[in-house]
Write a structure and sequence with these properties.
By secondary structure, this protein is an alpha+beta fold. Helices cover 63% and strands 18% of the residues. The strands form 2 sheets. It has a 4-stranded antiparallel β-sheet. It has a two-stranded antiparallel ribbon with strand order 4-5. Helix 4 packs antiparallel against helix 7. The radius of gyration is 45 Å and the shape is elongated.
């Protein structure tokens, strides 16, 4: 018993350890693709498309059906020995089978198979397009966590600096070079920073919960990600022109491939609709037989002279020797099965002449759907081109803003270091010192914000160019 308890405790320990192990970006992406409900729905749609292909393949096979009936006739039936109607029950069994094979059907079976293959391709593109959107969502949520981690670190550093300023000011008060008022200003600033630190911790916690919900993880408290020190370098993709990125995106974007496949499906729907205008030829074969369970009448070997008339001139009775009857059981089942068998075979020609214009309207309706699909493709291209241009400008502008933020932080840091010396020398009051320090703190936060904003916008641009998302 103790051994089993030890094993259970060990397994639980392994489970807890696996749950608290930090997850990489790729692990988060794979988990999101695996657990996302919309992805599961798309996977079911893909399976349904594959079943439709099997249906289309089945149209090339003959259809074979069999039937059997057993009938009880209850009520007035003729007695076969006396020829009288009596209330009795008779039974019959019948068997049959038929086979039908399409020889020509306006190429509809072939077109249906082509359409089923295109539908599978469309479902695959739709599934991959949904996964692309999920990957972007996960990357954005993952970067948001990394951003909040760096912001939290910045706030902690700033709070430590303020605490050192408070200690320095207290020393100066003790030395008589500063008054108590100067310390109050710094302590007020420190209290504000503590509030900002708490808000940063809350933001980090919320960002983790957001990503965990995407992954359908309920253990928020133990959910962690692998922290990365990401460099915001100038992306090589920015050396490309937006037009080149757009042309490349046309070849690898799944939403564009989906729209193009929908056009091919619409074209095949027109062929299917036109096929209904052509004649169809079907070969058929049928087999049937029946078995009766009624008794039979047969001779009993006893002969009697039975009068059948008389001679008119002599009035002599005319006799005929007739064998007597007796009832015997029905013919054996297998003998009746073979004897009563029948076959029919032939060809059936069906020529559509007039069906209330339903077929021709179906053709015209399919042509309208083709125009809709073509318009949808053009709209997708316009939207993609506009999105890429906007993403390019956003990424380029974000990098410039990041560079400017770095320069601002460098200048604010130098100003703060100079302010520390001037404050300690007594040539700067507390209000001015706090103003300079707050500007430096804001600049440090702006650098982190600009850095992650640029990284995400760069990843979006690389994504459209077909570059795999990675940090």
């Amino acid at each position: 018993m103790q051994f089993f308890l030890s094993v259970i405790v060990l397994l639980l320990g392994v489970q807890v350890q696996s749950q608290t192990e930090p997850m990489t970006l790729m692990e988060c992406v794979l988990m999101a693709e695996e657990k996302n409900i919309s992805v599961k729905q798309s996977e079911l749609s893909l399976e349904d498309a594959e079943l439709n292909k099997k249906d289309a393949q089945g149209n090339f096979y003959p259809s074979v059906n069999a039937q059997a009936n057993h009938t009880w006739n209850i009520g007035l039936n003729q007695d076969i020995t006396r020829g009288l109607l009596e209330n009795k029950t008779t039974q019959y069994t019948s068997f049959g089978a038929n086979l039908n094979l399409d020889i020509f059907k306006g190429l509809r079976n072939l077109n249906q198979l082509y359409r089923a293959n295109l539908a599978i391709l469309a479902s695959e593109y739709q599934l991959e397009d949904m996964k692309d959107d999920i990957r972007l969502m996960v990357v954005n949520a993952y970067l948001q966590i990394l951003f909040n981690i760096e912001i939290l670190e910045v706030q902690r550093t700033q709070l430590e600096i303020t605490q050192k300023d408070a200690e320095r000011t207290q020393s100066m008060i003790d030395a008589g070079t500063k008054v108590k008022y100067d310390l109050f200003e710094i302590e007020a600033s420190m209290a504000t920073q503590e509030q900002v630190l708490i808000q940063a911790e809350n933001n980090l916690r919320l960002s983790k919960i957001n990503l965990a919900q995407m992954l359908l993880i309920t253990d928020y408290e133990n959910f962690e990600v692998v922290t990365l020190d990401i460099e915001a370098l100038f992306g090589q993709i920015l050396f490309q022109k937006p037009k080149d990125i757009f042309e490349k995106a046309l070849t690898n974007r799944n939403d564009i491939k989906l729209s193009m496949t929908n056009i091919a499906i619409a074209e095949k729907d027109i062929d299917l609709a036109k096929g209904a205008l052509q004649p169809s030829v079907t070969a058929f074969y049928g087999y049937n037989t029946r078995v009766s369970y009624a008794d039979r009448v047969t001779g009993n070997g006893l002969f009697n002279d039975v009068p059948i008339g008389f001679v008119s001139s002599s009035k002599e009775t005319v006799l005929r020797t007739v064998e007597g009857n007796k009832l015997i059981g029905p013919v054996p089942f297998d003998e009746q099965f073979d004897t009563n068998a029948g076959h029919n075979i032939g060809l059936r020609l069906s020529i559509p002449i007039f069906n209330g214009n339903a077929v021709r309207n179906s053709v015209e309706r399919s042509k309208l759907n083709l125009l809709r699909s073509q318009n949808q493709l053009e709209q997708e291209k316009l939207t993609l081109e506009n999105t890429i241009n906007q993403a390019y400008n956003n990424a380029e502008g974000a990098y410039k803003f990041y560079e400017a933020a770095q320069k601002t932080e460098f200048a604010r840091k130098k100003a703060y270091e100079d302010a520390v010396n001037r404050f300690e020398a007594g040539v700067m009051n507390t209000f001015e010192f706090n103003q300079i320090k707050q500007r430096y703190e804001a600049a440090a936060s702006d650098v982190v914000r600009a850095k992650f904003d640029y990284i995400f916008k760069l990843k979006i641009l690389e994504f459209y160019f077909g570059i795999s998302i990675k940090l």
